[in-house]
Amino acid sequence: MMECSQPPPLRDDALSDALDGAAGPEVLAHLAGCAACAERLDAARALEDRLAGTLYRWDCPSPDQLAEYASTRLPAATASVLAEHLAVCALCSRELEDFKQFQIAETPASAPAPVLLPTQPHSGILFAQIVAGAGAALRGAGPEPIMAEADGVTIFLDIQPRPDGRATLQGQLVANDQDVWESALVEIRQGGALAATAIVDDLGSFACDAMPPGTFDLRIAAPNGRMVVLAGVAAAL
After folding, report:
1. Burial environment of residue 109 by CB neighbours within 10 A (0 to 12, 13 to 18, 19 or more)
2. Does domain 126-235 have CATH number 2.60.40.10?
């Protein structure tokens, strides 16, 4: 990777402003004269374009959750969040109505009503889930890093506070197809905005410095188009 020709290199929040068209003249001048930072911006913009198609409905509830909502089996707090989503998502609202129609379809009196789920597929992205109580540790990291798993992919995250109120994140990705994830682009997003970026090395490690504290979404996009998403990570410092 090229080094910044006009150090210090642009911070990730400055690149985020450039992506959003809100960068100031100093940032734009730096990008015009620094090939390394311009390359970082191009990589982030390419991922944004790919996410626009790949992350279709990534934040929608699963068909199973819609089924439980229709059957009033969800906890009250979860049902309230899902109801807010349904109020603004026409696609999920239609799926919910389809499911309700399946529920009230006539069935033999002696047989229980079958559970029929909408068949419209969600996106093919891998969604990792945090493993509660995982005791695995990163080399050199704290005793209780976050561990999350998807289909054939395990992610370890260790978040350490900095004196300036920000945080340093060390991560490692371990997968059955490890070589696929080398040079993958890591994005940390908070409230939909890009907060930090990193690159996965040949050992699966990555690090993000000066990351704002708070809840964030982690997205790791491999060069071949595969992606793993870990949403709603709470970085309590």
Report:
1. exposed
2. yes
Main-chain dihedrals φ then ψ at residue 35, nearest 5 degrees: -65, -35
Say how far apart CA 159 and CA 209 lie, in whole Å.
Answer: 10
What number of helices (H) and strands (E) belong to the chain?
6, 10
Contact 74, 82 (CB under 8 A): yes
Paired tokens of 35: 């090939």
Instruction: Give me the half-sphere count of Cα atoms (radius 13 Å) on the Cβ side of residue 87.
Output: 6
Domain chopping of the chain, boundaries: 12-54, 63-121, 126-235
pTM listed for this prediction: 0.48
97: tokens are 């109505």
Contacts of residue 234, Cβ cutoff 8 Å, sequence gap at least 6:
214, 215
Supply 9's token pair. 């290199």
User: How far is residue 105's CA from residue 115's CA, in Å, rounded to a whole number?
Assistant: 11
Q: Are 16 and 192 in contact (CB under 8 A)?
A: no
pLDDT digits (tens, 9 = 90+) for 46-94: 877 766 555 556 677 877 787 788 878 888 888 888 888 888 777 778 7
